[in-house]
Amino acid sequence: MHGMSEYVKVASTGEIAPGQMMPIEAKGVKLLLARVGDAYFAAQRKCPHLGFNLCRGKLEGRAVVCPLHKAKFDLATGEIERDPRLLFIGMKAKSDLATYPTKIEDGAVLVAI
Ligand code: FES
């Protein structure tokens, strides 16, 4: 499977409640896992702006808001929904958020990476 993504187990479904995020690691890559209702989303843990830990941010629907400069990313697509800003100064994130497909199998959450 060299160079291809494969599903790896990162958590069990009971470890994370709806509306919560938790840090996970898959193949040595630090990610965040978010649960929205019964949907699970995996994404890079570092904010594409200045690298803040997005697990310490807030979920708004299926989007995560970075606590540092309030950039907002859709966890399903990785798209930036709101640019970071500092007081009244608008800033740009370097990229969208990297996201990874998830699936549930036998009570386990798997992430394709
Ligand atoms: S580090 Fe996340 S918005 Fe600035």
Describe this protein with a few key phrases.
113 residues; 13 strands; single chain; Rieske Iron-sulfur Protein; binds FE2/S2 (inorganic) cluster; four-stranded antiparallel sheet; mainly beta
Number of domains: 1
In this structure, how is the largest beta sheet organized? 4 strands, antiparallel
* Overall form: globular
Beginning-to-end CA distance, first to last residue: 11 Å
Task: Write out the distinct hetero groups bound to the structure.
Answer: FE2/S2 (inorganic) cluster
CATH topology, anyone?
Rieske Iron-sulfur Protein
Q: What structural class do you assign from the helix and strand content?
A: mainly beta
Q: What oligomerization state is this entry in?
A: single chain
- Summarize the helix and strand pattern as letters: EEEEEEEEEEEEE
- Per DSSP E runs of 2 or more residues, the count of β-strands stands at 13
- In CATH terms, what is the architecture? 3-layer Sandwich
Strand order of the largest sheet: 2-3-4-11
Rg to the nearest angstrom? 14 Å
Helix content: under 10%
In round numbers, the mean pLDDT is 94
Could you give a quick summary of the protein structure above?
The protein has 113 residues and is mostly beta strands. The chain contains no helices and 13 strands. It binds FE2/S2 (inorganic) cluster (FES).
Describe the structure in your own words.
By secondary structure, the protein is mainly β. Strand 3 and strand 4 form a beta hairpin. The protein contains no helices and 13 strands. The mean pLDDT is about 95. The radius of gyration is 14 Å and the shape is globular. A 4-stranded antiparallel beta sheet has the order 2-3-4-11, with no helix packed on it. It has a 4-stranded antiparallel beta sheet with strand order 5-6-7-8, with no helix packed on it. The structure holds FE2/S2 (inorganic) cluster. FE2/S2 (inorganic) cluster binds near residues 47, 68 and 71. The site of FE2/S2 (inorganic) cluster (FES) has 9 residues, from loops.
